[in-house]
Amino acid sequence: MIDLVFSNGEIFTYKVDDWATLRKQHRIIGEIVGNTTNIPSLPVKILPEEATLLLNKEIVSVYEVTNYSSLEKDKIEDFENNLLQHEIIEYKKIRRAQLESVIDKIVEKRRKTGDDSSPEEILNSELEKSTSVTKDNMIWPILMQPLNISEADKKRVASEDILKLTTELKCAVYRDLWEKGYYITQGDKFGGDFLVYFGDPVCHHAIFIVRCVKPEERITPAEIVAFGRLGTSVKKRAVLASVVDDTVSYVTINWIDA
Predict the structure, then answer these.
(1) Containing domain of residue 103, as a range?
(2) DSSP label at 189?
């Protein structure tokens, strides 16, 4: 069984093999949130709808850390201090290179104000003003593997707790689409709840934008037109999904130019 980590209201997987299994065997895409020198990397955030499906099918277990007593505080503090010092050094290198490329203009501006300092003194002055790095504004790394936590410090997270992060409607629609064989990702950036694909998003474009609506929810004609136009503009079908009598129903909005 695959372990997922619940942290700050979100769910993650940190292991490459687990992510590969979820994607290849179970069509679970997630969202890569790590970044290493502009290259996407672990961890992968799992949608609550994905996690709920996986829990119900007993493919994964989800846990959160309830006690960090097993971690040595002095080691954590040393890590933070070393990270801060390295960031200060690296940022000053980057900032110095930036300032050196425009130092002539900076010196010229300073001369107009009566500053007779040497270019090197002006550069160092500007460097000190713009390279203040503290623990409050430093860049914190995204862990590429979970902390080494003992089993005693883990607490299992139930599907009921994860459901609080989403809705039963979204979970029902996601599950229905998944069981129909589609690949599904989050659809916020296209104005919907889900984007739906025939195959893995690496090789396929989304074909549907799905918006989940309650049966009693009132949708104005203007909203329907706007959603239909959105689908047409991004070359996808706009779909409204709802649950009626325990069955997921879909309405596709087609935009036809008269």
Answers:
(1) 73-130
(2) G
Distance separating alpha carbons of residues 78 and 86, to the nearest angstrom = 12
The predicted model scores a pTM of 0.70
Residue 129's H or E segment, with its range, is helix 119-130
What b-and-e string marks burial along 155-190, b requiring 16 or more CB atoms within 10 Å of the CB?
Answer: eebeeeebbebbeebbbbbbbbbbeeebbbbbbeeb
Encode the chain (258 residues) as per-residue pLDDT tens digits: 899 989 888 999 988 899 999 999 999 999 988 665 566 677 899 999 999 999 999 999 999 876 655 555 677 778 788 888 888 888 889 888 999 999 999 999 988 989 889 999 988 888 888 778 887 777 766 555 555 666 767 788 988 999 999 999 999 999 999 999 999 999 998 889 999 999 999 999 999 999 999 988 888 889 988 898 888 888 999 999 999 989 999 999 887 665
Could you tell me which residues are beta bridge partners of residue 196?
A: 184, 208
Dihedral sign, Cα of residue 216, residue 187, residue 172, residue 3:
negative
Does residue 137 belong to any structural domain of this protein?
A: no
Same domain, 28 and 156: yes
Please list the active-site residues.
197, 205, 236
Claim to verify: residue 10 and residue 26 sit in the same structural domain? yes
**CA-based nearest residue to 10, from 149, 166, 190, 148:** 166
Phi, psi of 83 (to 5 degrees): -60, -45
Q: Which tokens go with 43?
A: 């961890």
Write the CATH number for 205.
3.40.1350.10
